[in-house]
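User: Teach me something about this protein's shape.
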Amino acid sequence: MVPVCTIRSVKRKLLFGKRCISVSYTSILDILIWHDPCVIKYQLFLLFRETRVRTGNLMEFGKRRKISMDAVAGKSQVDGAGMNPIGEVVARKANLLEELFSLKGKIALITGGTRGIGRAIADAYAAAGADLVVTARDLRGCQAAATEISARYGVKAVGKEMNVKNVQRIDAVLKEVVDEFGKIDILVNSAGIAGSEKPVLRMTDEDMAEVMSVDFYGTFFVSRSVGQVMVRKKSGKIINICSILGKVAARNMAGYCASKAAILQLTRVMALELMQDNIQVNAISPGYFVTDFSRGFLDMEMGKKFMANKIPMKRAGNPDEIKSTAIYLATCPPYLTGAEISIDGGHSIV
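Assistant: First, the predicted structure itself:
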């Protein structure tokens, strides 16, 4: 048997850095391969999960140790006898991840998908295998983003100009998408603006109408039209990008705060109404992230002080930190609907 302390010691070495991983990888397997698999199987699973060992590395190791490639692929022979927990654990892990989180064969439409959080989600979905429709008001920007995504990830991606305030344009784009792809599996409502940033008593009717028309009504218009497409297939995921400011007040942001709070409640109502058609509607509420949307504020001395004093993690988020949550909500079980996930560095808990 391998003492638990030995496993932990080597695990710490493996986690220390890439160079140390390459040195220690064979040694830990040399130690473990000859001992009781029932004792070490779970420890190996944790070890491989934390160090992200790939099946290809195991196959190379198998060649050096003369381990059957069938065993590495998931069968139960080591040199003709006994169980090989290494191959079985990694194969099961790969199969489970593929089963739970793959987006192959899915079609995702992302509004505001050319930059910031929307673009990060587009990249994540393409990496997971989804074909994409990237929309925004700038056609060239949409086409450029689609071309980059397709070249990088090998998926089909198209860019469409779409102003979320224009119902006629929304319906025209959806017709083009359905004609080309046949369906829409995932909708991400990421388009939005900050608004006028004035005190309430100085806001004009136009100030409030503009931010509500893009942020709230835009989400409503696109969700309604895409929802009708999804209902015909009895399947779909709608993910609304809200904001921590839908729950936490901020001076001079009345329109933005109100629109995001409205989106959150819209998410819940839609979830309630569409669950009968196997459509899940959930929300992500980001805090302060480094995007074109917020960079001006974050670069100001006021913004830096705000991060230091108000955000427990004392920094803004990176759009890449949205990716895993967006993939999860695009693959979530039917029982998860009407939920909101905050990604805000602890802002909403203090």
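Now, about its shape. Residues 1-81 have pLDDT under 50 and may be disordered. The chain has 14 helices and seven strands. If you'd like, I can walk through any region in more detail.
User: That's plenty for now, thanks!
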